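Lecture 7 notes: from sequence to structure.

We start with a single chain of 552 residues. Read the sequence below before looking at the structure.
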Amino acid sequence: MALGLFRVCLVVVTAIVNHPLLFPRENATVPENEEDIIRKMQVLEEKLHLEQLRLEEEVAQLAAQKEALERVAEEAQQQNESRTAWDLWSTLCMILFLVIEVWRQDHQDGPSPECLGGDEDELPGLEGAPLRGLILPNKATLDHFYERCIRGATADAARTREFVEGFVDDLLEALRSLCNRDRDMEVEDFIGVDSMYENWQVDKPLLCHLFVPFIPPEPYHFRPELWCSSLSVPLNRQGYGQIKVVRADEDTLGCICGKTKLGEDLLCLLHGKNHVAQPTSEAEDPLCARGSPYLDTMQVMKWFQVALTRAWHRIAHKYEFDLAFGQLDTPGSLRIRFRSGKFMPFQLIPVIQCDDSDLYFVSHLPREPCGGDQASSTDWLLSFAVYERHFLRMTSKALPEGACHLSCLQIASFLLSKQRRLTGPSGLGDYHLKTALLHLLLSRRPADWKAGQLDARLRELLCFLEKSLLEKKLHHFFIGNRKAPEALGLPEAVRRAEPLNLFRPFVLQRSLYRETMDSFYEMLKNAPVLISEYSLHIPSDHANLPPKAVIR
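Now the structure, written as tokens:
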């Protein structure tokens, strides 16, 4: 009983001791702290989850940007590869085009397809057979026409040349007697050029062209400057040059005393020891352009016209005819009028020799239909007339007797002359006909120019002209032609120059080109009728025909 009571008391005491109100413990707030911690952990967990979502979104955006950059880089690489391939293809096409163009220019015999199908210069009926299928008269008809018409019409060419040359000799001698050698230009002997001296003149009246070289008075001299000596010459000035008037004591090209020290023991015999070059005033330079040392064509024309007028007044009493200028804008165009009413024209052309060659600078040329730009007054056209005469003479010696080359040129010139009277002048002139013949003479064997080949060679000449017109390209025979015979002595600078296209005005002037093509094909269409018509109506004074002329 006592033991049981003791146990009860012990339990009661233990309960009292452990009661929280009597003895509070330190960990009595743990449940509350645990809830706060749990709540905070939940909040933190939510923040971490939101941060994870944000980071995942940023990573997704970065991945999308990377993919976009990779896509742009890939597209750029593809474009670069495509552009490289296109550039390579364009280069190959350009090289192929240039090769084809060079081959066409050097080897193709027919006209260029580009010249036949362009919208700019499209002409009806250019396609098809050469010469539009024209059938020229046969050899017998051409021979009859030439013998009865052309040779008969030019029978008195030799007498005309002889008369004109005698009169011009007297006229120039009178001119020299009136000139002051200290101030005036000195005139040299004339040189016969062009068709009358190459024996293919067909037009009436017969017209002599004579070059009259002149040189300046001392102490001046001329220094020619060719267009090919400069790289800045425009295309329309090719074939031209300028002539500088230089005093002998100022010509540094002719004396080396101004370029080197001669020393005390050497003396320049030209300039002297104490010579000092003085600048020349423009008023002292004879016939120069204002403010320029270059010779002026207009000044030369005025001087030459005045000089001829004074010379004629000096000798007019010796002759029973009148002399007058034929064309106001051509100073050397003269006309002799006889008392019977007949007249005889001729042309004296003032020229300047280019160094020691047979090239001459001319102030003007006989009127030829052309569409070129107006030249400057200090630009002088370079004439190859003397070389052309030499080439024809040299070629004639190698051709068979009675060769038909001049006959072809005469017939073509006759047809062109008649066409000009019908439709007026065009861009095609006699000089183009002669240039075409010179090219054919150089490319053909001498045996191909026998008298029996007249019809074939005439047709070939007309086909060559047609091809050149369609291509708008006819190269000058001497400029840039390295196939020209070296025996002619052509200056090397001219041989090595760029070829000069005589048909360049057709490229720039479409209306002139159309008129020329229409006139050319109309000439071909009228050729058989003209040949037949003029063969039947021959003047009575041509019954006795002279022997066929040759170049001597």
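The domain at 139-248+287-536 is CATH 3.30.460.90 (Beta Polymerase; domain 2). Keep this in mind for problem set 3.
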